[in-house]
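Late entry, written up from scratch paper. The run itself happened at the end of the previous shift, but nothing got recorded in the book at the time, so transcribing now.
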Amino acid sequence: MSTPTRHRPGPRTPTPAAESLVGDAWILTRRQFSHWRAQPGAVAVGLLFPVLVTVMFGAFFGGAIAGPGGDYYSFLMPGIFVMAMLFGLETTMAGVCADAGRGVTDRFRSLPIHPGAVVLGRALADLVLAVLGLLVLMAAGLSLGWRWTGGIAGALAAVGLLLALRFALLWVGIVIGLVAPGAETVAAVQILVWPLSMLSNIFVDPATMPGWLGTLASWNPLSATATATRELFGNPTWAAPTWVDQHATALAIGWPVLLTAIFAPLAVRQYRRLGG
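Output as recorded:
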């Protein structure tokens, strides 16, 4: 009597839904690339604006605020990298709101594409733009005298934390862009980007702020990423013996994970509700 042959299961293949999501998202990502190629001036301004902010703050504050270690640019640049990730929120909000206002999003909803592909495609395209912006900003920092001493592995880890923050903020921007009734609302929200960046340790030590304000600044997700990237780049940071500073790397990972877990599903849900 022969023994039945047991067949080993082959490798798992993506489900049709997963294939549809990835394929449709990539198509929409390339659509965004084509729009940027048609408007290179706007893209160039977006890439160079953080460089202008770097030169401006270095010239205005460099003489008055030496920063830890006495070299303001060494202290400033990781914070500027974090600020650039936050500034990208404005591009995402404005782009999503413009597509919704022109009816582009409604046309996408009428097509047989995965419902999550539109928001994912936008997120991937803006993440690529964030990588380009970060490269430009790092090159500018090197030309101004900024250096990292933490080695290649530390620098790559720092870049990973910066992009993780940017990816999380992308979803926040998509949700705001989808719920905003018009460009005026988006412009009002964009104004809040500056106070949010100032309420952190990007430029000054939170210990110099009033007690409650310093606590808010210390727990700001931007502060966690700024402290962690300064440490990974080997740049000077504020020597604060607080719990948030001692666990900055863990918080720099945890905050983006939490924000993505909250706002990514909200973005997909809000997209499905449009026009409903």
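Residues 150 and 234 are 4 Å apart (CA to CA).
(Scratch paper discarded after transcription.)
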